[in-house]
Amino acid sequence: MFCNASQIYQFLIEDNITKSEGKITFDFLNISIDINQKSAIGDLFQEWFAQWLKSKDIEFRMKSNTQEFPDFLLDSESDKQNLLEIKTFNYSASPAFDIANFEAYCRSLKTNAYRLDADYLIFGYDLIDAKFYIREIWLKKIWEITGKSTRYPINCQIKQDTIYNIRPILWYSDRAKIKPFNNKKEFVNNLYETLIFYPKTKENNQDWLKIVTENYYFYTKQRL
Amino acid sequence: MFCNASQIYQFLIEDNITKSEGKITFDFLNISIDINQKSAIGDLFQEWFAQWLKSKDIEFRMKSNTQEFPDFLLDSESDKQNLLEIKTFNYSASPAFDIANFEAYCRSLKTNAYRLDADYLIFGYDLIDAKFYIREIWLKKIWEITGKSTRYPINCQIKQDTIYNIRPILWYSDRAKIKPFNNKKEFVNNLYETLIFYPKTKENNQDWLKIVTENYYFYTKQRL
After folding, report:
1. pTM for the whole thing?
2. Nearest to B27 among A15, A22, A36 (CB)
3. What is the DSSP letter of A22?
4. Minimal Cα–Cα distance from B47 to chain A, Å?
């Protein structure tokens, strides 16, 4: 069967995903170890998740290049709707995963503005004494996990004055000072403001907002 | 007991590491999957390797920040000798692992030139139908796995004209046109030539070779 992201989210909750204890084992040369290193969790969990979908008879497609957006195509035919991205982060730290490369994402919206409506299924995990737990899951749109920063109108990973990736803000904290954007339009506007404020992109992006708005209408027949 | 890299290499050969079949299992929410994704192998194998060292009663120390160079300190006391780096790569493809960030490595040699003598234990693996194999292992010095490239005097990962990481050449192929450097000195000279040819670093590195040469002598009482 085909499901949308919201149905998948419900299945995970019904499966009591936050009550389960897991582990990752590496068995080689007569030594079996339980993995306690977090750096590999994201990739491994995504492979586990694909298998979980299969166990539920939920059909999906993937891009042949697994690095490409999105992680999962949930629609039976369309590559332009029901797009699902999977994100994992260490629940005991702050969510610092990469949502997308800033420049590549902005470029892609000019021709694939439907990406704005992709679903993000986010898993906050703990790995304690080599035991794996999912503490909380969220189903979000990109503008619900992003926000301003002090430096740019959208919070990004910045190294030596160069913008690399769009990074989430602390969307689930009541105490966080920076709140997520209120809607898609505000998110797009802040991307645009960043593009024309950031020295590397300001020259060639004056018409970016107009192009993205038109491209979004072209695909969805809706205004931003 | 304490061992040097060469003894560890021998133990691995004696353990028939290239004859063993392994697997990585992720067990969660009543689903157990055998991992078939290569992106996580490097980190997982390093954790396995640490456990293997312990099983052999081989003592080692690690930096508190596991991202830091080197992966393993094999000396009982010194942080300046018997440094071991672990590298893994997909044996069915070309070795494309990052040896070190180019600029950071060059900078570090000015004050820690003993790093030139670090050992690299390299594992060529296969992951086929979720079964893990080590096909070949090598124990190398950095100048034995690096070489020239057409663009710069040392082969690096380059994206949009920016040099990122020092990358290996195909050191184990008789048919490869580019051969490894012949010795440490040739490697250092080619680093220097790259530094003063690369626009971003040429200004401030005229004295780099002199500084590194002196620093190497300071630590080792040997000439480069």
Report:
1. 0.85
2. A22
3. B
4. 7
B37 vs A44: CB contact, 8 Å cut-off?
yes
Distance from CA of A181 to the nearest CA of B (A): 33
Q: DSSP code of A141?
A: -
Out of A24, A31, A46, closest to residue B55 by CB: A31
Number of neighbouring beta carbons within 10 Å of residue B7: 14
Shortest distance, CA A65 to any CA of chain B (angstroms) = 13
Contact between B136 and B100 under an 8 Å Cβ cutoff? The reply is no
CB atoms within 10 A of CB A174: 6
User: How much is the ipTM here?
Assistant: 0.87
Q: Are B163 and B153 contacting, i.e. CB atoms less than 8 angstroms apart?
A: no
Taking CB atoms and an 8 Å cut-off, how many pairs form between chains A and B? 91
- A209: nearest Cα among A194, A186, A188, A187: A188
pLDDT in tens, B24-58: 999 999 999 999 989 889 999 999 999 999 999 99
Count of C-beta atoms within a 10 Å radius of residue B112: 18
Which residues of chain A make contact with B28, given a CB cutoff of 8 A? 20, 22-23, 48, 132
CA nearest A81: which of A223, A224, A222, A220?
A220
Secondary structure in 3-state letters for A41-99: HHHHHHHHHHHHHHHCCCCCECCCCCCCCCCEECCCCCCCCCEEEEEEEECCCCCCCCC
Q: Which of A123, A129, A70 is nearest to A100 (CA)?
A: A70
Give the dihedral of Cα atoms B75, B78, B83, B84; nearest 10 deg.
40
